[in-house]
Amino acid sequence: MSPESRNSPFHNEQRRLHSRKSILVLRAAVIREIRNFFISNDYLEVETPLLVSAPAPEVHIDAISTSAGYLHTSPELCMKRMLAAGFTKIFQISKCFRAGERGHRHLPEFCLLEWYRTGIDYHDLMTECRELTLWVCRKILGQQEIHYQGEKIDIQSPWKRIPVADVFDRFASITMEDALSTDRFDEIMAIEIEPRLGSMGPVFLYDYPASLASLARLKANQPEYSERFEWYMGGMELGNGFSELTDSREQRARFEQASKQRNALGKECYPMPERFLDALGQMPESGGMAVGIDRLVMILSDRSVIDDVVAFTPEEV
User: Fold this and answer.
1) Regarding beta strands 286-292 and 203-206, do their DSSP bridges make them parallel or antiparallel, or are they unpaired?
2) pLDDT of residue 143
3) What is the CATH number of the domain that holds 196?
4) Total domain count for the chain?
5) Distance between CA 295 and CA 195 in Å, rounded?
6) Which residues make beta-bridge pairs with 97?
7) Domain span at residue 99?
8) C-alpha–C-alpha distance, residues 74 and 111, integer Å
9) Using an 8 Å Cβ cutoff, are 206 and 162 in contact?
10) Are 295 and 238 in contact, with CB atoms under 8 Å apart?
11) 145-148 and 151-154 as β-strands: parallel, antiparallel, unpaired?
């Protein structure tokens, strides 16, 4: 083989794909064991459409439009319609799409695990996150600890649960209220708080401000907070879960407010997801969780860049 052919685009791609083979084998095992965990716990695996007529209106999540609708940013709305129709324990592993998301931890096309269960709340979901992680690590790694970026993560010990307001008090240069009023909440979280979580082991930050409730219900005794949490390991957000809001009027008001904010920012305003809102009032009390599979594989393979855990990045297709 000539030096020219060894450096051809074809052979460069062969080398690149071969260098990722061990991680892609691990990725396949992770997905297999996630399925095994949920099936063993009597969850039904479901499939919902990737192409939808109306994504959830959220201020900072942008859908990718097509001539026939939108690629979903999450299977959430359709899965909740299934809960309203009588399904009680469902999960899905799905490709999702979000415009403008690209970085060391972000891809515009990514793999998401979501599960929903009736009769539980966000505290129960935190417990299920730990049980899922223990299952995957025991089956794949044969141990109950993970080594990520120089830190040992002990997943057997109790996982920390910390209110969001408390981490602002401990780590941030301004209060949570000031961060919200100046629209710097996400900035402070990313720059000042998340890097401090890396040495804490698995941690849940819970009770997000009501203004960031998204589709979560508010706390009955503290309506300034929502029953929402985010799961972190190695200083990286892996998942987002909450006790589900089942009040269709309140959810419509939140969607309308989000649409107004999108309009003020010059963003596309999506059609209102009427079928979801019609079904929401019939949905029983439930908990729902979304976990980024790409990021979970990053943690398990000790990789800091998401490109390393997928076969092809957007720039390679």
Assistant:
1) unpaired
2) 87
3) 3.30.930.10
4) 1
5) 16
6) 109
7) 3-316
8) 10
9) yes
10) yes
11) antiparallel
